[in-house]
Structures are given as C-alpha cells and as structure tokens.
Amino acid sequence: MAGMSQPDRIHLRDHVVEAEIGAFQSERGRTQRLRFSLVVDLRDPVDARDDHVDRILSYDVLVQAVDAALADQRFNLVETLAERIAAQVLADPRAARITVTVEKLDRGPGALGITISRDAARMTVTSQHLPVRIVVGRPAALPSGAVVVMPDAPAMPLPQGGDARRIALLGFDQAAWILAETLGIEVAETRTELDSAIRAETPVVWAPARLAVEAPGIRPAGPALAFWLAARLSADRVDFATASPLPAPPEGIAVGQVSGAE
After folding, report:
1. Pair 104, 90: CB distance under 8 Å
2. How far apart are CA 113 and CA 97, in angstroms?
3. Domain 9-122 belongs to what topology?
4. How do 186-188 and 9-19 pair as beta strands?
5. What is the pLDDT of residue 13?
6. Strands, DSSP E only, in 88-236?
7. DSSP, res 34
8. Of 217, 248, 253, which is closest to residue 233 (Cα–Cα)?
9. pLDDT of 192 over the 70 cut
C-alpha cells in the first residue's frame, strides 16, 4: 500500500543441508540436498542506537528452526517441512511474518521446491518448552541435555569502593570465565546466547553481569542469581554442586545436588 514503509527483515539464504525426504520409494533410505531460504519480517524496527544482541531476533533462530524440523521427523513433502519451519520461527514474538523456500537440488535438472508465506497474526503458533537444568558450582561431570552452569561465588578478592553490587556481579563474570575454561565449554552472557545453547543442547557457563545488572532487586549471590535465571528460562530445576545445605527454592522450582569436583 502506498505510503506504508517496509518492515525491517532478517534472512537466511542458500542454506544447504543433506536430509532424507520424499514420498517416492526411490527417495527412501538415501539423503539428498535441500536448500533453505528464510526471510522474516520483524515486529519492531531495528533501532540503530541500540547495539544489544537481545533486542533483535537472532539468526540462530532461523538455522535452528531448520535443524529442529529435520530432526523431528522424516518428511514426505517439502510443503510440510516448510510449514513446520514457519511455525517454529513465528513462535518467537519478535517475528511478525516469514517467507520460507525449500528446494530439492538432486531431483531434477534444476531446483524443485515450494515457497510459503505465513503471518504470525493468522497462524496458530505454540512456543516449544525446552527442558533446561541450571547447575551452580563446578560439577564433576556435566548432566546431559540443556545445561547452564554458573559459579557459586564471585572471584575473590573483590575491589573495594564504588558500586558493591555491580562489582560483585563482575566478580561472578570473572569466575564464570575461569569455570568455563576448567570445564572446556563456552561462556554465555546474553539471553540470545543462552537460548541458542539451550536449543542446541550445548552446555554453557553463564556470566550474569550483563543480564542481572538490569534487575536491581536481585542479590549478587549464587542461589539468588540461579533462581532468578531459572524463572527467566522457565527452568524447573536448579542443582548445586556443593555439600552445603540446599537453599529453599521459589515455588515451582526444584532443587537438587550433583557430584561436585574433587
């Protein structure tokens, strides 16, 4: 319509994956190349003054929607696969509309496929809850599945003077980097990085300062930060790698213990 500005968009183009798909018998028991292109209209325009990754829809959401759909089941039709990918992306509230193209590259002289467009306002979408466990301290072994590890205390000694709460959170960040090197895993500082690791079921160590500094009511203590993060991630369990008495959790969150480091 004349006078209406185009929405801001992000895209994934020419993403090629090998997968088993197809309704014909000749397509069963073998993989073929699929090419994916996704274009997502953002619900809110990008603010050039804001360089914070959590304010935008991550490109990882697009890649992982493709991976999750392919891992979920074997599809006979590229049309069904495209629909599943669209629903997965539109479950993110920052996405307003998506165009998905899925092409088979090995079934003809050219690319054979489908392009669909779906609007979040006209499509029933459900957010998939991914189980995630938070572990406080240094576990002897990492549990399976999506795990977010965090230090149980800030690195010491802490500098004196200034904003004691902010300094304590930065001490937790320092401890997180040390813990990550010990465990041989990556550090996540932003919600985008946490969400990406949870979807991929890749364990990470959380450095809390960047997120927790925006919540001034949260005390810079291991249990308080763990329970706050559990609520943000809809985690239902927090484990402590310690022999100390377990803290009382908020309602709806279970606590437990894992084997700590020697």
Report:
1. no
2. 20
3. GTP Cyclohydrolase I, domain 2 (3.30.1130)
4. unpaired
5. 95
6. 95-104, 112-119, 132-136, 146-150, 186-188, 204-206
7. E
8. 253
9. yes
Contact 144, 258 (CB under 8 A): no
Confidence of residue 54 (pLDDT cuts 50, 70, 90): low
Indicate the domain borders of the chain: 9-122, 132-257
Task: Check if the beta carbon of residue 41 is closer than 8 Å to that of residue 7.
Answer: yes
Cβ atoms of residues 138 and 188 within 8 Å: no
Calpha distance 87→80 (Å, rounded): 11
Q: Positive or negative CA dihedral for 238, 56, 44, 79? A: negative
pLDDT tens track for 127-181:
556 789 999 999 999 988 899 999 999 988 888 888 888 899 999 999 999 999 9
Report the CATH fold assignment for 132-257: Carbamate kinase (3.40.1160)
**pLDDT value at 223 more than 70:** yes
Residues in CB range of 122: below 8 A, 6 or more apart:
none
